[in-house]
Design a protein that fits this description.
Layout lengths: L8 E5 L2 E7 L4 E5 L13 H4 L10 E3 H4 L13 E3 L2 H19 L4 E3 L13 H13 L4 E3 L7 H8 L3 H6 L4 H7 L2 E5 L4 H4 L11 H11 L2 E5 L13 E3 L6 H14 L5 H7 E2 L1 H9 L9 H8 L3 H10 L5 E5 L1 H4 L5 H14 L8 E4 L29 E3 L3 H6 L4 E4 L2 E4 L5 E5 L3 H4 L3 H7 L5 E6 L4 H5 L2 E4 L8 E3 L6 E5 L12 H12 L2 H5 L4 H19 L6 H7 L1 E3 L8 H8 L13 E2 L3 H6 L23 E4 L15 H5 L7 E4 L1 H6 L7 E6 L2 E9 L7 E4 L42 E8 L17
Parallel strand pairs: 6-17, 7-14, 8-9, 8-12, 9-10, 11-23, 12-13, 17-18, 18-19, 24-28, 25-27
Antiparallel strand pairs: 1-2, 2-3, 4-5, 4-19, 15-16, 20-21, 21-22, 24-29, 25-28, 26-27, 26-29
Helix pairs in contact: 3-21, 4-21, 5-16, 7-9, 10-13, 10-14, 10-16, 13-14
Length: 765
């Protein structure tokens, strides 16, 4: 066991800043003293550093080494231990072969960027930089699983996703100005625990409490009561899953027909309302989208809908739409309709009012932007133009050359021969895992950098052990957090694990591009280099700007925040002529001529109610919500102490309403089987009225753990809901992820419980 250390090391993670000290067996963790509400997710680090799931040395799939016979990849195959020299020689040879035979467009750099809060040892940046330098490029992905639909629709409606979500309405504005916050999908604190690049102060709980004490009214519009914290004193409006657009339309109908909407704002700042008005009033289809129409669809009474609509214009009202609503079929529609509803109220651009997408969905929304740049590693230039929407990876691997539509373009899937993955676990992020297993058998070679034996590592051919964040030095920084953190190493690397940068540097040397990749710097020199633009900007602004060595000794550095000025929407409101939006009209596009020109039947040219093509049935009567977990970030450190503490009998917990449990003879703590035509998984039941009747909720992130054998759809014994979810695009416009919602049946499991092997290393020799 590693020797204990006396000193506390400052550090940062996506769920908070903290200090850590290795006690010889586990990690002691102390949250940053200035954080008013530190995240308990930090406690996952305590037992993770030396867990049996850690990868100790380079490994190669035995079946890949013997490529004379084509063998499908499985999770049960044997791996062979290799020295670093041997494995890097093998990998360099394979990379050279693929490039020579197929070109750079045959390589998919598929990493998803949540591996570390550090700005240098950021696995996604490192692998993309390497592929650009060594290959001249790679097939990339665009957008994200979290915001696949919103990132495409928002620029066509009002402006860039980042600007609408991060530089718009702040928590300070809500605390001071908001009278009504209508939160479609809620504002769950488990989501705002997390921020890319790290976070030093979690302020959401206090801001909502302050606003509530002042008299602000919060509405949690969600099938889940706890999608809003108790401090908000929110009124829960339970709504049938996926019907938020119908409710928004009914609210808009009442505003219009009772002359409660701001027609002057619509006239001055919007375009296309007359087209939308015809749809809203039912002039073409004969169906007015009024409260009576929405009542059966949403499960809310028409009287409650009308009363809510009448209240909205009475004060400063904020319409907020969460990530969750657009992670479903037709996910573009609630994002668009939320903006239209806010426009009809005429408050867009006012402090604490108007529209904010994803407020509360992540810890970096609702904050001021920093006034100086943060350290950023250049990824170089990608010479390959091919890309896919990130959630279409299985489609790409299964259908090389097949045409698909995306955001007005007709494209074709590339033919991928090699997948290079670092710092991510698609067997968490992606939908319909059984389909994904088939897809990941298509490439000739899969390479993974990983710190633990995730399902992706077990499915790879070449597995290179990478350090965890606490085993290396780095700089923690986020564009909305006013604190730069010297992330000092707290414990020595396990086994033969290496930093991603060092792995790529050695690999670059073998491929003859070492100088281009490293630029002659080692890791420490890179940290000083990346720090310099921040120091220079601080100096020019007259702020405290120590040199790198002094910053490293201090352990942290305060960064100035920019003004809380409402961003581009405030500027647009103040002067819509000089500060036109980036849309074709320069205004908020309630009707989009561009989208009309695409002719997509699954994304009309104005927001509309489009019911799911997979509604509940007698065979699968329950609607499953597969949302983000409260005890970890995605699937990261699922083996950590805090994540494990939430499980029952080692299984992930699924929540269901008492009425649904009673009908199925299910009690608290029972192991249940969830199933549909795509797959099945086991989970442990928690019976609660915090979930609507007809709804069942199972968080994502439990490591995929299929029963061994040759079954086409093996049972996941651990509780990964993505064996059940649909792998389809939100629409032809965005092709986003639809992983939030599906339909299932649930039954009490009466068989012998299979052992959980999710965290066991594969067979090795």
């Amino acid at each position: 066991m590693d020797q204990a250390r006396e000193d506390w090391a400052p550090h940062s993670a996506h769920w908070g800043a903290f200090s850590a000290r290795w006690n010889g067996e586990t990690l002691d963790v102390t949250p940053y003293e200035g954080d008013p509400a530190p995240s308990p997710i930090l406690q996952n680090f305590t037992t993770a550093m030396r867990h049996k799931a850690r990868i100790l040395r380079p490994m190669v799939r035995k079946a890949w080494l013997d490529r004379s016979v084509r063998t499908e990849r499985t999770f049960d195959q044997e791996f062979v231990e290799c020295s670093w020299d041997k494995v890097l020689d093998l990998l360099a040879s394979e990379l050279s072969r693929v490039k020579t035979e197929h070109g750079a467009a045959a390589v998919f750099g598929g990493s998803y960027g949540w591996s570390s809060a550090g700005r240098f040892h950021h696995a996604q940046s490192q692998v993309h930089r390497f592929l650009n330098m060594a290959f001249g490029g790679y097939v990339r992905s665009v957008n994200s699983y979290s915001a696949g639909a919103s990132a495409v629709i928002l620029p066509r409606v009002m402006g860039g996703y980042e600007a609408v979500s991060r530089h718009n309405v702040t928590w300070d504005q809500i605390a001071e100005h908001s009278d009504i916050v209508l939160a479609f999908g809620g504002m769950a604190l488990k989501n705002s625990h997390v921020a890319s690049g790290g976070i030093s102060r979690h302020i959401e709980r206090d801001a909502m409490a302050t606003a509530a004490r002042r008299g602000a009214a919060f509405y949690c519009i969600s099938p889940l009561r706890d999608d809003m914290p108790a401090e908000a004193d929110a009124q829960w409006l339970p709504i049938k899953v996926g019907t938020d657009v119908a409710l928004m339309l009914a609210l808009a109908h009442t505003l219009l027909t009772e002359d409660l909407c701001d027609k002057a704002f619509i006239e001055r700042y919007c375009t296309g309302f007359e087209n939308f008005e015809r749809y809203l009033l039912g002039r073409d289809d004969g169906t007015p989208k009024d409260a009576a129409w929405a009542a059966d669809i949403t499960g809310n009474s028409s009287r409650a809908i009308v009363d809510l609509a009448r209240r909205l214009p009475r004060g400063r009202t904020l319409i907020a739409v969460s990530h969750s609503l657009q992670r479903a079929q037709y996910g573009e529609q609630p994002v668009w309709m939320g903006a239209v509803l806010a426009a009809m109220l005429g408050q867009i651009g006012l402090p604490g009012g108007g529209y904010n997408y994803a407020l509360g969905a992540l810890g970096h929304t609702g904050r001021r932007l920093n006034a100086v740049p943060i350290p950023t590693l250049s990824q170089g230039k990608n010479g390959v133009s091919n890309f896919i929407p990130v959630a279409r990876v299985s489609d790409m691997l299964l259908n090389p050359g097949k045409p698909f539509d995306y955001n007005g373009r007709s494209m074709h899937y590339p033919d991928i021969k090699l997948v290079y993955w670092a710092g991510g676990n698609p067997f968490h992020h992606h939908q319909d895992i059984n389909r994904m297993r088939r897809a990941f058998n298509a490439p000739q070679t899969i390479v993974v950098h990983e710190s633990a034996w995730t399902p992706m590592a077990k499915f790879a051919d070449i597995v290179l052990p990478a350090t965890m964040t606490l085993e290396r030095d780095d700089i923690g920084a986020a564009g909305t957090d006013p604190r730069l953190v010297a992330m000092r190493r707290a414990v020595d690397p396990i086994g033969e694990a290496r930093d991603d940068f060092d792995i790529f540097a050695d690999l670059s040397r073998r491929l003859g591009v070492e100088q281009a990749f490293t630029e002659g710097r080692n890791s420490r020199q890179w940290l000083a280099h990346l720090y310099e633009p921040t120091r220079k900007a601080l100096t020019e602004a007259g702020w405290d700007a120590p040199d790198f060595d002094e910053f490293w000794q201090r352990g942290e550095l305060a960064l100035p925040s920019g003004p809380d000025d409402g961003g581009f929407l405030r500027a647009f409101r103040n002067d819509p002529v000089s500060n036109k939006l980036s849309t074709p009209s320069g205004k908020i596009e309630i009707y989009s001529k561009a989208i009309a020109g695409f002719g997509y039947d699954d994304c009309p040219p104005h927001p509309a109610w489009l019911p799911s093509t997979e509604p509940p049935t007698s065979r699968h009567p329950l609607t499953l919500i597969a949302n983000q977990p409260a005890t970890r970030l995605h699937s990261q450190l699922d083996f950590g102490a805090y994540s494990q503490s939430s499980k029952i009998a080692g299984r992930e917990v699924v929540r269901l309403h008492p009425d649904d449990a009673r009908r199925r003879g299910i009690a608290n703590g029972d192991i249940v089987r969830l199933f549909n035509d795509r797959g099945a998984c086991l989970a442990a039941a928690a019976v609660t009225d915090d979930v609507m009747s007809g709804v069942i909720q199972l968080s994502t992130g439990a490591w995929y753990d299929p029963e061994p054998g040759a079954a086409e759809q093996p049972l996941c014994v651990h509780g990964n809901p993505n064996v059940l979810t649909r792998d389809i695009g939100t629409s032809r416009l965005a092709q986003g992820c639809c992983g939030q919602v599906t339909v299932v049946e649930c039954e009490k499991y009466s068989g012998a419980l299979p052992p959980i092997r999710a965290f066991d290393p594969p067979d090795q020799r």
